[in-house]
Amino acid sequence: MHPCKVCPLRATPLFHPFSEGELNFMIGFRAGEVRLEPGEALFHEGDRLEHFYTVLSGQGGRYTTLPNGERQMVNFVFPGDIAGLSGTLTGETNTTLQAASPMRLCRFDRSRLPDLFRSHHERAYAVTWIAAAEEHFLGEIIATLGRRNALQRMAWALLRIYVRLEALGLRDAQGAVPFPYRQADLADALGLSLVHTNKTLARLRPLARIGGGKLMVSDGSGLAEKGLTDFEMPRQRPLL
Amino acid sequence: MHPCKVCPLRATPLFHPFSEGELNFMIGFRAGEVRLEPGEALFHEGDRLEHFYTVLSGQGGRYTTLPNGERQMVNFVFPGDIAGLSGTLTGETNTTLQAASPMRLCRFDRSRLPDLFRSHHERAYAVTWIAAAEEHFLGEIIATLGRRNALQRMAWALLRIYVRLEALGLRDAQGAVPFPYRQADLADALGLSLVHTNKTLARLRPLARIGGGKLMVSDGSGLAEKGLTDFEMPRQRPLL
DNA sequence: CGCGGGTTTGATCCCAGTCAAGTCCCGTGG
DNA sequence: CCACGGGACTTGACTGGGATCAAACCCGCG
Q1: Is there a contact between B190 and A146 if contact means CB atoms under 8 Å apart?
Q2: CB within 8 A of B182, min separation 6: which ones?
Q3: 3-state SS, residue A190
């Protein structure tokens, strides 16, 4: 575990896409840096994407809007994530990416992707690996939305988020991790109404608590039990 | 549009992963063929995968089982899909892939993936593209499970499946496409109970009907309206 | 004929959505 | 200093969509 040169956070294998060596390359590959203020969008659903990004710091959310105007959060994005890759490859995004806290992102040109695959197969493999890992995770989200009730969803989500941010080294002295989302965002992510989201959070309060831009989990295994999750530890990315 | 040498079905750009030239290569790359009878599983959740596959013919479903025993279908798999790629890359699958009708699949060795990225970047790019396309689609499923009600989910799903199979050239003389799933499978895919799935199907009966292993859609735009979907046509895969 | 898997239908219940008020908090301006 | 307003969070009352339970029904099969 080493400090990362581009991203100020410490990297964990599963959660940071690139190793140090890869990062040196990606620095050469990158086309610029982007900053977003809370509420600003990086791209909108329907956009043709000419760039994709890695998140250096800050958090946001990726959502779709249904024809009837309702919003569904697809996933939250954290430092180390890649954003907009699938939209870049398929030509058009499905989703809007909006910042929840101030974000810094590293921008890469779509036009250099062929280069990447032609001349830097280890990095190309790394990119593919990340896409696969995200697909893996989206499958978990589908299971949650399809088969878990409100309490289970909430417990599952809070635990997932907490573990992820903890692995990024973002836990502060009190054991809390940054959580810039509103309850309405959580509601849109879990497919619940705002009111019920609030009531469900209240029911979980002995185990976990959000407020003041922070998420605090005091009983992780209690959450895991309520969320029907195995408390899994991150897995190592297999090398090429 | 040409008959495909490996897969007996005709290929459409979005829905068939490989072009003719690419297929010639993949034939050299492949490690064997697998056949499954209905009900048989190709791999189980928790397996370490040493192979991934392309579906040559037949249909199946990919599901996870929650700790409480409930099943959630993540997606249906159709000819032309890639199966088990994300599990192969990340090392372990989340999901079980089970055949619904007799399936033929083409098997590829995980051990040859580095080869693919090292020496055949166009194909590596194609594989990545497919992973991205699937991610795109999983996002749509998440929006459906999170924000659509039973009628909308059902209409959306039937239309999606129909369009997909139609694009594969699987529509018969009566305009029906093969649909080997039970109502219980649909229920598990849409996050509904079996009973409610049945009642919802009944409500849609003037527009679409399943039975006898077939799905028949008589009013696609009616379905699109009820399903809150834009009736989108498949998009071309951009070349490297 | 009986059996079993899948489908259909009705009755009842409850989780979560909706509506409607409040509360808390913070920033702005008189 | 307080009044005001707006955004996020909270709480209560009511409603309804979908789950659950239960019982037929249909049909291919031994």
Answers
A1: yes
A2: none
A3: helix
